[in-house]
Amino acid sequence: xxxxxxxSGNGSNLQALVEAAREPALCTCADxxxxxxxxxxxxxxxxxxxxxxxxxxxxxxxxxxxxxFDRAISEALEKHKIDIVCLAGFLRILSxxxxxxxxxxxxxxxxSLLPRHPGLHAQRQCLAAGDTESGCTVHFVDHGVDTxxxxxxxxxxxxxxxxxxxxxxRIHQAEHRAYPRxxxxxxxxxxxxxxxxxxxxxx
Length: 203
Ligand code: GRF
Hints:
Layout: E1 2-7, H1 12-20, H2 24-27, E2 31-37, H3 43-51, E3 55-57, H4 66-79, E4 84-87, H5 96-101, E5 106-110, H6 122-129, E6 133-140, E7 150-157, H7 164-187, E8 191-193, E9 199-201
Bound molecules: 5-O-phosphono-beta-D-ribofuranosylamine.
The site of 5-O-phosphono-beta-D-ribofuranosylamine (GRF) has 13 residues, from helix 1, strand 5 and helix 7.
């Protein structure tokens, strides 16, 4: 399966996917074939270049609407014959049109144990709530913000003296394991999204 990763920033999850896709468990089923960023200065683009992966920049400010921006991305994904789209720190909300078009082939990673703490600053929300446990979630994207069906999660403890930074770092480590695992499940057809929005698992 040809995989595109959409990024806006650092791209450590992109890096984890790239490295995992070189391993035997993933290399036969997933090829990270394209990186798309909405920001020309995203460090993730340097990671893509270093890995020899083609990348494209679509500056959302150059488009008259969210739909126009998303259509440009969709066209690029189709041109590159992409099967699976992984959002990895992509800081744009995607239009309903885009989500519908890529439904079942579009996944996101979020730094909390969804459905707890959707949206921005999930780690800050977690600390403010006094949770003793956090983690990350990889899920299919639906029309809500961080609401789609969950493919996999990974838990981490919240320590007594955690700051937003220390907790984020621990969650990031978990993300780098969870995202490759989720991609493997998806790319090998172990999990898919049914028309009614339920997950179907195959052994
Ligand atoms: C991750 O914490 C992810 O959960 C969130 O954005 C962050 C991206 O980090 N959606 P990176 O750019 O992959 O390092």
